[in-house]
C-alpha cells in the first residue's frame, strides 16, 4: 500500500514549516487580530468609529521574479514583494491594509525554504503595519518542478466610505508627485529574464563594480509606500485627489486609471510627465543597454517611480517636503531612501483620447 509520503507529500515537513511560519506571524500582531496562525480561518475585528465602513481588497503574486530568487538561492525578500503588490494597490484608495494572507505552492516542500519565503511576507506585513492572518502551503508533486515555488497572496483593509480617494476630485492643474521605486519592483521580469541570463554577473555603474551582482540588484524588494503615504494623508488628505501604484504596464497602463472618465462632450483629463524630473535607477539603463526597447520601457517598467499622487497645486511643495523629510524613516536598510519628485501635472487633452498612450504625454 502506498503512503502519502511515497506519493510525494511529506506531512511532517509541512508541520515543521507551519511551526516556522508561526514564529514569523507573531511579529505581525496588531490590535484587532482575533486568531492565531493555524486556525481554520482568520478573524479580524473591524476598527471602531467607522460610520460607513468599506472593505478594500487587493491580490497579486510575485511572478517570474521568483525564478531569480531560486537561481540565487535567496528566498527571504520576495515575500516582501508579495505583500507590497497588494498593500500598495489598496493604498490607492487612501486605505491602510489590516491583514494579509499568503499562498505558497511547490513540488516538494523544504520547510527552511518555505520559512524564508514567509519571513519575507512577515517583513512586508511589519513594514505595512498589517497582520499576517493566515495562509496555505500546497505541496503538489509532479505539478511543480522540484525546487520551484509559487508565492501569491491578498490583503484587506477598511476605511470610511466618504473619505475614500477615488480620483473624482482630480482637476486640471493638479501636480503629479512621484515617489521613487527601489528598482524594477515585481513587474516586467519575463523581459528581464530574457535580457539577463547570468545573475551572478557583477553589476557595474559607470563601468565600475558596485560590489553586488546583477541578481542581487534585481532582487531588491519592492518599496512599500503605506507608512509615508498614510502620514501625508493624515495632514493633507483633502489635497490628495488621486493615487496610482505603478505596476505592470508602467506609466501608460497605470496612471490613466486614476482619472475619472470624461462626461459626454467634455475633454478628458490626462497626465503630462516631465521625463527629466527624477533620477532613474541605473538598473533600467543596464536593461536598455542589454536590449530593452527604449520606446516601450515606460509601458513595461516603473522606470524609478513606484507610486504617484495627484495633489492640489497649492499644497504640492509642502507634500513633497514632508515626504523627503521623513524618507529615511520609512526606508529599509537594504533599499535606497525614498525620494519624492514633482514629475508632472494634470491637464485636459487637446484631442480625442483613444488609447491609454493618449492619456500620458511626456515632455523633456
TrEMBL record:
Keyword check for Nucleotide-binding: yes
Example of a GO MF term: phosphoribosylamine-glycine ligase activity
Domain PurM-like N-terminal: 55-158
One cellular-component annotation, GO: cytosol
Highest rank taxon of the organism: Bacteria
Annotated EC: 6.3.3.1
Keywords, comma-separated and alphabetical: ATP-binding, Cytoplasm, Ligase, Nucleotide-binding, Purine biosynthesis
Pathway per the UniProt entry: Purine metabolism; IMP biosynthesis via de novo pathway; 5-amino-1-(5-phospho-D-ribosyl)imidazole from N(2)-formyl-N(1)-(5-phospho-D-ribosyl)glycinamide: step 2/2
Subcellular location(s) per record: Cytoplasm
Pfam families assigned: AIRS (PF00586), AIRS_C (PF02769)
Gene3D superfamilies in alphabetical order: PurM-like C-terminal domain, PurM-like, N-terminal domain
Top EC class for this record: ligase
Catalytic activity, reaction form: 2-formamido-N(1)-(5-O-phospho-beta-D-ribosyl)acetamidine + ATP = 5-amino-1-(5-phospho-beta-D-ribosyl)imidazole + ADP + phosphate + H(+)
Domain (PurM-like C-terminal): residue spans on this chain: 172-327
Biological process according to GO: 'de novo' IMP biosynthetic process; adenine biosynthetic process
Chief location of this protein within or outside the cell: cytoplasm
Keyword Disulfide bond: no
Entry's family note: Belongs to the AIR synthase family.
Protein name as it appears in the record: Phosphoribosylformylglycinamidine cyclo-ligase
Amino acid at each position: 500500500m502506498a503512503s502519502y509520503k511515497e506519493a510525494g507529500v511529506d506531512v511532517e515537513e509541512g508541520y515543521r514549516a507551519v511551526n516556522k511560519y508561526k514564529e514569523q506571524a507573531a511579529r505581525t500582531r496588531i490590535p484587532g487580530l482575533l486568531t492565531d496562525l493555524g486556525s481554520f480561518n482568520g478573524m479580524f475585528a473591524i476598527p471602531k468609529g467607522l460610520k460607513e465602513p468599506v472593505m478594500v481588497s487587493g491580490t497579486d503574486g510575485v511572478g517570474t521574479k521568483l525564478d531569480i530568487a531560486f537561481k540565487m538561492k535567496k528566498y527571504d525578500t520576495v515575500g516582501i514583494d508579495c505583500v507590497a503588490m497588494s498593500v500598495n494597490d489598496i493604498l490607492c484608495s487612501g486605505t491602510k491594509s489590516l491583514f494579509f494572507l499568503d499562498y505558497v505552492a511547490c513540488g516538494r516542500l523544504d520547510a527552511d525554504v518555505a520559512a524564508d519565503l514567509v519571513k519575507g511576507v512577515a517583513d512586508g506585513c511589519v513594514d505595512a503595519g498589517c497582520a499576517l492572518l493566515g495562509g496555505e502551503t500546497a505541496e503538489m508533486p509532479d505539478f511543480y518542478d522540484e525546487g520551484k515555488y509559487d508565492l501569491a497572496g491578498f490583503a484587506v483593509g477598511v476605511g470610511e466610505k466618504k473619505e475614500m480617494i477615488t480620483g473624482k476630485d482630480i482637476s486640471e492643474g493638479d501636480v503629479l508627485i512621484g515617489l521613487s521605486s527601489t528598482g524594477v519592483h515585481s513587474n516586467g521580469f519575463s523581459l528581464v529574464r530574457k535580457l539577463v541570463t547570468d545573475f551572478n554577473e557583477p553589476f557595474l555603474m559607470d563601468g565600475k563594480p558596485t560590489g553586488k551582482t546583477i541578481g542581487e540588484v534585481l532582487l531588491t524588494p519592492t518599496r512599500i509606500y503605506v507608512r509615508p503615504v498614510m502620514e501625508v494623508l493624515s495632514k493633507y488628505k483633502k489635497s490628495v485627489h488621486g493615487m496610482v501604484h505603478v505596476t505592470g504596464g508602467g506609466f501608460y497602463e497605470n496612471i490613466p486609471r486614476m482619472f475619472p472618465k470624461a462626461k459626454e462632450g467634455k475633454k478628458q483629463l490626462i497626465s503630462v510627465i516631465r521625463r527629466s524630473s527624477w533620477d532613474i535607477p541605473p538598473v533600467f539603463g543596464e536593461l536598455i543597454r542589454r536590449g530593452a526597447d527604449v520606446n516601450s520601457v515606460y509601458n513595461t517598467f516603473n522606470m524609478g517611480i513606484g507610486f504617484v499622487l495627484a495633489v492640489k497645486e497649492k499644497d504640492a511643495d509642502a507634500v513633497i517636503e514632508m515626504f523627503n523629510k521623513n524618507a529615511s524613516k520609512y526606508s529599509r536598510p537594504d533599499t535606497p531612501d525614498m525620494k519624492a519628485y514633482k514629475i508632472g501635472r494634470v491637464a485636459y487633452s487637446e484631442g480625442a483620447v483613444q488609447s491609454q498612450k493618449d492619456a500620458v504625454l511626456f515632455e523633456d
